[in-house]
Amino acid sequence: MTTPWKVSFLDLSVHDDEERAELLAAVERVLRHGRIVLGPEHHQLETRLAQHHGRAYAVGCGSGSQALFLAFRAAGLGPGDEVIVPALSYIATANAVSLTGATPVFCDIGDDLNLDPKDLARCRTEKTKAVVPVHFTGKIADMAAINAFALEHDLRVIEDASQAFGAKRNGKPAGTFGHAACFSMNPMKVLAACGEAGFILCDEEVFKERLVTLRYNGTVNRETCVEPGPNGRLDTLQAAMLLVRLDRFHLLEQRRRAIAAYYHERLAPYVRVPREDPDCHDIYYTYTIQTDRRDALLAHLTEQGIECKIQHPILMPHQPYYAPLNSSVPHADQVIKKVLCIPANEKLTDAQIEVVADAIIAFFET
Ligand SMILES: Cc1ncc(COP(=O)(O)O)c(C=O)c1O
């Protein structure tokens, strides 16, 4: 089916012949050796991901949502506990807290669209056990301030790094700032599987062992059940393809950052562009601009055949399930009316990104 868009937001087909051949060869290898469940590629991927981040362990999971749930359970979160999360994230962040029986407490966000450390004190109570910063859009949250607060109040920090594989702050990669970190590798992510996948990073062996138990129905040695858990294992076929994608990651990263640099230069006079601080290396999972004229701009770009998204138009605290908590997140309420994600994926051609920039500039100049 051909896309009706002149510039689509995302294209999940594999255009690059070399990449497609490598992915197919990886699938072929798994089909031939037949160790489909927790096969050698699964183990290789976990080892590579742990090494890549300089952490002791990576535990593969069925999705980013599973990774969050398993990490929260392994951290001992449960009924009666409160967990601070930012107002702006994909709903999986809050849901994973709720699924443990704990209660998410919604913190306001800063201009970087991440959890605002200045709002942490308001959110904390005697029941608070953990903070979950989300590195939204592929920019790492202010981890120095968040970790200082967590240390002062003896809180666990579990990063939701789903959108930030490859991002760095002060040279440290996303996923190395908290007790544990969770990643999604769903097909939309920058490091993407060809289906659902996720992983968790941690350093403590006991924590890792509990994750491994929890991710397969709470069983030890796959037979003896010591606590209830889901089946949250990572698929070996996905692991095999992710190994290919991991080797090619630097190419994606370069292209995403080049597109972002182009947009920065052309769009900064017209809209608020994502600000990359000198100590940051952002990964641009999304390229999110902000403007007071967002709705009119969105209509104009749609009319021009340019597919854009608002991520996520309903803040987590305002979702019907969480609305009864009556959370107050005034800055997030303002910001969410202004944000717009424009196409910025690595498959776009130079001509396409020029079309996007020209259309935005034309909107503001007429
Ligand atoms: C910030 C964040 N957390 C969690 C998730 C959930 O990941 P998954 O879709 O792999 O379950 C996502 C995915 O969109 C996400 O962006």
Structure description:
Keywords: Aminotransferase, Pyridoxal phosphate, Transferase. This protein is an alpha/beta fold and 366 residues long. The protein has 2 domains: 231 residues, Aspartate Aminotransferase, domain 2; 117 residues, Aspartate Aminotransferase, domain 1 (Alpha-Beta Complex), CATH 3.90.1150. Helix content is 37%, strand content 14%. The strands form 4 sheets. It has a 7-stranded mixed sheet, with helices on both faces. Strands 7-6-12 form a 3-stranded antiparallel sheet, with no helix packed on it. The site of pyridoxal-5'-phosphate has 15 residues, from helix 3 and helix 4.
Shape: globular
Task: Give the N-to-C terminal Cα separation.
Answer: 35 Å
Task: Give the CATH H-level superfamily of the largest domain.
Answer: Type I PLP-dependent aspartate aminotransferase-like (Major domain)
Number of helices: 12
The number of strands is: 14
Structure summarized in a few sentences:
The chain has helices spanning 17-33, 40-53, 64-74, 92-99, 120-123, 143-152, 205-214, 236-247, 249-267, 294-303, 330-335, 350-365; strands spanning 57-61, 82-86, 103-107, 128-131, 156-160, 168-169, 172-173, 180-184, 198-202, 219-220, 224-225, 280-281, 287-290, 339-342. The chain has 366 residues and is an alpha/beta fold. The model has no long low-confidence stretch (mean pLDDT 97).
Distinctive features:
366 residues; alpha/beta; Aspartate Aminotransferase, domain 1; seven-stranded mixed sheet; three-stranded antiparallel sheet; 14 strands; globular; binds pyridoxal-5'-phosphate; pyridoxal phosphate; aminotransferase; PyrdxlP-dep_Trfase_major; DegT/DnrJ/EryC1/StrS family aminotransferase; pyridoxal phosphate binding
